[in-house]
Amino acid sequence: MSTDFKSIPLIDIGPLLAKCDDPDMGEDPGVAEVVRQLDRACREAGFFYVKGHGIPESLIKKVRTSTREFFKLPYEEKSKIKMTPVAGYRGYQRVGENITKGVPDMHEAIDCYREVRQGMYGDLGKVMEGCNQWPVNPPDLKPIMEEYVSLCTALGGSPNEFEGQRAGDPFWVLRIIGYPGASKANGLGTPENDIGCGAHTDYGLLTLVNQDDDITALQVKNLSGEWISAVPIPGTFVCNIGDMLKVWSNGLYDSTLHRVINSCPRYRVCVAYFYEPNFDVPVEPLDVCVRRTGGTRKFGRACYGEHLVSKVQTNFVE
C-alpha cells in the first residue's frame, strides 16, 4: 500500500526496546506510539529510518571501515573467497557479477547467510548448505561482522504474532557491498553505467541498511514513480520491509522498489542485514491482516526458503 510519500520517516524505537522484556509492554503508551509510527511507515512507504536501536555507533563504523579495507585489496586477494554454487552461494563477487532483472549491477560484494548444515532443511535447503567464507585480510572482518549479525538478529525480537512455527529460528542474510565511484571517463560529466544495484524488492521480513554517512545513493520509488533519496542520517539504519512481510500482511505492508545509484566520484560502502523468517516456514496472509484489508486473501501460501533459493540461483553470473 505504498503512497506518494516525499520523504522517509525517522522513528525512535528506544521506548520499544526498553520494554522488550516486559510482558505488559503492549500497555505502555511509549511502546504504543512507536508501534503506531512503524505501522504508518510500513503502510505508506515500506521504508523508514530508526534511531535508538542500541547498537554501538563504534561498531557500526567498524563494520564500514573493515568493509572498505577489504574492497581496497587487489582482485587476486579478494577472489580467494570467490562465491560459487558449491560454497552455498557464499563469498565474494566482483563488479558486474550480481544480476538484477538481467542487468549486471555495478557493485562488488561478500554474501553471507546463516550457515546451513548438511540435511538441515532437507532438499529445500540443499542449495544453501555451507559455511560462510571470510577473508584472511583484514583479520578483524570476521569477528566484527559476526558480532554485528548477533546484535542485529537480537533486534528482531519475537512479537506474539510471529511466535511458534513462524519465528524462533530466524534465517538471516548479510550483504557486504562496495559501489565504485561514478566514472567521468566519457567526458560528458555523467557515469558510463550508474546502476549500482537495479530496482528490486527484498526477499524476507526486514532489512537494516548501514550506509556511508556522506554519500547519498539509495533511492526508493513512491506510488507515482518518483525516486525518493534515502539521505544518510548518522546513527540510524535505513529499514525496509520485504516480500514475506507483504504476504503475511496481505499487502497491507508493501515491499517497496528501491535501487542504488552512486553518482558521487568516491567509493561507497554499505552493509545490509536481512532479518528473515524461519527458512522452512509456510508464509500466508494472517487473519488479522486479511480483516484489515477488506476480508479477501490476496496471496496464496509461500515458503521463504523456496523464495530465497529461486532468487539466489538467478541473481549471479556463474
Automatic annotation (TrEMBL):
Q: Which residues form the Fe2OG dioxygenase domain?
A: 169-277
- Statement: the UniProt record of this protein carries the keyword Oxidoreductase: yes
Q: What would be an example GO MF term here?
A: 2-oxoglutarate-dependent dioxygenase activity
Q: Where in the cell is it found?
A: Cytoplasm, Cytosol
Q: Give UniProt keywords alphabetically.
A: Cytoplasm, Dioxygenase, Iron, Metal-binding, Oxidoreductase
Tell me the protein family, please: Belongs to the iron/ascorbate-dependent oxidoreductase family.
* The keyword Iron is assigned to this record: yes
- GO terms for CC? cytosol
Signal peptide positions (record)? none
- InterPro entries recorded for this chain? DIOX_N (IPR026992), IPNS-like_FE2OG_OXY (IPR044861), IPNS-like_sf (IPR027443), Iron_ascorbate_oxido_reductase (IPR050231), Oxoglu/Fe-dep_dioxygenase_dom (IPR005123)
Name the Pfam families on file: 2OG-FeII_Oxy (PF03171), DIOX_N (PF14226)
Say where the protein is mainly found: cytoplasm
Annotated protein name in UniProt: Fe2OG dioxygenase domain-containing protein
* Catalysis performed (reactions): L-homoarginine + 2-oxoglutarate + O2 = 6-hydroxy-L-homoarginine + succinate + CO2
